[in-house]
Design brief:
Blueprint lengths: L1 H15 L22 E5 H6 L5 H5 L6 E3 L8 E3 L11 E5 L2 E3 L17 E7 L4 H4 L6 E7 L6 E9 L3 E13 L2 E12 L8 E13 L3 E15 L6 H6 L12 E18 L2 E17 L3 E18 L5 E17 L4 E18 L4 E16 L2 E17 L4 E12 L3 H5 L13 E14 L2 E13 L2 E4 L9 E4 L3 E13 L4 E14 L15 E10 L4 E10 L18 E12 L2 E8 L7 E7 L7 E6 L4 E9 L2
Parallel strand pairs: 4-7
Antiparallel strand pairs: 1-6, 2-3, 4-5, 6-7, 8-9, 8-33, 9-10, 10-11, 11-12, 12-13, 13-14, 14-15, 15-16, 16-17, 17-18, 18-19, 19-20, 20-21, 21-22, 22-25, 23-24, 25-26, 26-27, 27-28, 28-29, 29-30, 30-33, 31-32
């Protein structure tokens, strides 16, 4: 109760600030993230330059990002900071200030964000539970979409391997008096690499907005339709026979989703020193398909978050906000399994950044959060308080450093609770909690840029799926004994000449079980080393070339908590692209996996009932190519 009162007092103080603010302070425009940390960005120009056709193409091995995929479909799992199959609950995606999280284990639908609509992608490899709440444990993927600044009339088309095609368009108009509209649409289909692995989706986004010197408001509606086939897992013998085959018996496995999403945003300059932002989101997701039996799913999500940001006379910045959400989840199968769950959450947070002198800043933040679950009629209440403290030091314009400690949390997903250990007495999963310790350096001097970030992430009650023992039929979701992740991220960029630039991203992580039955073991499906080395060249005003090598180190297959099987070997793949642009026309070609490396997008240790354990594989694509042309009529 004392912590709640402290949070309410902080919020009240922030609301009172405009009454005492000096109106001579210039008008501000503050990013939602007040406390800077371990970030790396990709902008629209970089996306176009590499000829990417999927969001994961520009994220793989960037700032330690690892991609997990069970098919060529819509929803790969993004892992930051050394999480394996439970990365879906420990990495948060935020699109235009809207956290994209589900109360079940479904990962965010990346295909809802059209690549041509992205202005900026930021990978924040740090715990951000104070600012963003649930699931921001290992890091946050922030995506900012484009806001029309001029009329745009663009069409594009992509064709590629595996009978892939994509059509896209964007139409934006400034109507005068600050009013604008934006229309973005695309249609994508591919058979993908394996048999029975096809995916297709269509998405259209309409946005109507109003912007002037004191406010910026918009109403956005997205309609998404997507279908995915699932090829299943293969044994080593099946991979040897035909790595493109689907698992026998999976010919009828598929899902079809229809998602409607509404976002209302309003940013208002309360005074020359204060901004008030409010974001509301409503989403309906209805899915049907077959996975061993016919199923139907529905998700209803409502959330609203008002935030007040104020800059004081001494340069201090205070951000305070409230997050409210109300979600429902329904799942049923023809085999008579039914889940009907709900979750309501409340979060109160404040973040302040205080300048100590010209070189030193101090950061402090706290969040109280509560979650009330209705799990098929069984009530469950969870509460948590997290905080962060940080010191930022600016030695010069070229060199800066930071130290940061933060606590983090994630609430169990409702379907994780439904599949928790139900032996007598039934066990409700506890809230996962953790501590993150971080330090970093950044150096920028003309053509040379260097970054180094060191972290230690300790978790209690980490939530994960535990595979069945040989005499059990199914596994369960459980709270693990304490785990830790110690990591180092190094980044370097250097402009070798006016035409040639090189960039390196290296990530090391040591992910371990600290105690319990698996004490000292590696957390499975986490590569200890990843590396990305990229070169880009501008031959002239019209032609740009890029090449990259992506190395992923050895790791144990998912579910091999006991580390009883040998590790999957490390591998390196190479990609290249070329882009030609002339006035309003551009064309790009991207070649993936140039040397036709055989590797796996996912692998797991399978323990069948009354059978012999084996390693299962999801083979990744061989060499493939995509070609894209774009024309802007504006």
């Amino acid at each position: 109760m004392i912590r709640i009162k402290k949070m309410i007092a902080l919020l009240a103080a922030s609301i009172a600030v405009p009454l005492f603010a000096d109106t001579t302070i210039p008008m501000i425009s503050v990013s939602p993230e007040v406390l800077e940390s371990n970030e790396s960005g990709v902008d629209d120009d970089q996306i176009q330059r590499v000829g990417a056709t999927r969001l994961q193409d520009v994220l793989h091995n960037t700032h330690g990002v690892q991609i997990l995929s069970l098919s060529g479909g819509q929803n790969p799992i993004i892992s930051i900071r050394g999480f394996g199959q439970n990365a879906f609950g420990n990495t948060l995606m935020v699109v235009d200030d809207v956290p994209r999280r589900h109360i079940d284990q479904l990962t965010p639908t990346l295909s809802m964000v059209d690549l041509n609509d992205i202005q900026q992608i930021e990978v924040d490899a740090s715990s951000q539970s104070v600012r963003y709440g649930d699931s921001a444990v290992g890091g946050v993927l922030r995506i900012e979409t484009k806001a029309p600044e001029k009329p745009v009339r663009t069409i594009g088309a992509t064709v590629g391997s595996y009978h892939a095609f994509r059509y896209n368009m964007r139409l934006s108009e400034l109507l005068g008096n600050g009013v604008y509209y934006d229309l973005v649409g695309s249609r994508t289909r591919s058979d993908n690499y394996r048999d029975h692995d096809a995916s297709s989706h269509a998405v259209i986004k309409t946005k109507l907005g109003f912007k002037n010197s004191s406010s910026d408001s918009s109403l956005q509606y997205i309609l998404f339709n997507g279908a995915t086939q699932y090829p299943g897992v293969l044994t080593s013998e099946q991979v040897g026979d035909d790595r493109r085959m689907n698992q026998p018996g999976t010919d009828g496995f598929f899902s079809h989703s229809r998602i409607q999403d509404v976002v209302v945003k309003s940013a208002y300059h309360v005074s020359q020193s204060s901004n008030f932002d409010i974001v509301a989101n409503y989403q309906v997701d209805k899915t049907f398909g077959n996975m061993f039996s016919d199923f139907q799913q529905s998700r209803f999500s409502r959330q609203i978050s008002p935030v007040l940001t104020t800059v004081f006379n001494n340069g201090a910045t205070l951000t305070s906000g409230v997050q409210l959400s109300n979600d429902r989840y329904h799942y049923e199968t023809t085999s008579n399994y039914v889940a009907n769950d709900g979750r309501k959450t409340l979060g109160l947070f404040s973040l302040i950044k205080l300048p100590i002198n010209e070189a030193l800043d101090f950061g402090l933040g706290g969040r109280w959060a509560g979650s009330y679950d209705d799990l098929n009629g069984v009530d469950n209440l969870s509460r948590v308080f997290v905080s962060e403290q940080a010191i930022y030091y600016t030695y010069s314009e070229r060199l800066s450093a930071y130290l940061r400690h933060s606590t983090n949390y994630r609430f169990p997903k409702v379907d994780e609770q439904n599949n928790a250990d139900m032996s007598a007495p039934p066990k409700i999963l506890s809230t996962q909690r953790g501590d993150s310790y971080e330090a970093g350096l950044k150096y920028q001097d003309g053509a040379l840029g260097l970054t180094a970030d060191l972290y230690k992430l300790d978790l209690n009650n980490e939530i994960s799926y535990v595979p069945p023992a040989p005499d059990e039929v199914v596994g369960t979701n459980r709270n693990l004994d304490p785990t830790s992740r110690t990591g180092l991220t190094l980044g370097a960029s250097y402009k070798l000449s006016k035409e040639l630039t090189g960039k390196l991203d290296y990530h090391f992580v040591r992910a371990r079980f600290n105690s319990g039955a698996f004490e000292g073991n590696s957390i499975p499906y986490v590569a200890q080393n990843t590396l990305r080395l990229a070169l880009s060249s501008t031959l002239n005003d019209n032609i740009e070339l890029t090449g990259e090598g992506l190395y992923t180190g050895s790791r144990y297959a998912a579910d091999d908590d006991a580390n009883v099987d040998s590790q999957l070997g490390g591998f390196t793949i190479y990609n290249a692209s070329a882009r030609y642009s002339y006035k309003q026309f551009s064309a790009a070609i991207r070649l993936n996996n140039i040397f036709n490396k055989h590797y796996y997008s996912y692998a797991l240790y399978v323990v069948p009932f009354a059978g012999v354990p084996y390693r299962g594989y999801y083979p990744a694509s061989e060499r493939n190519v995509n070609m894209t042309v774009t024309y802007d009529f504006a």
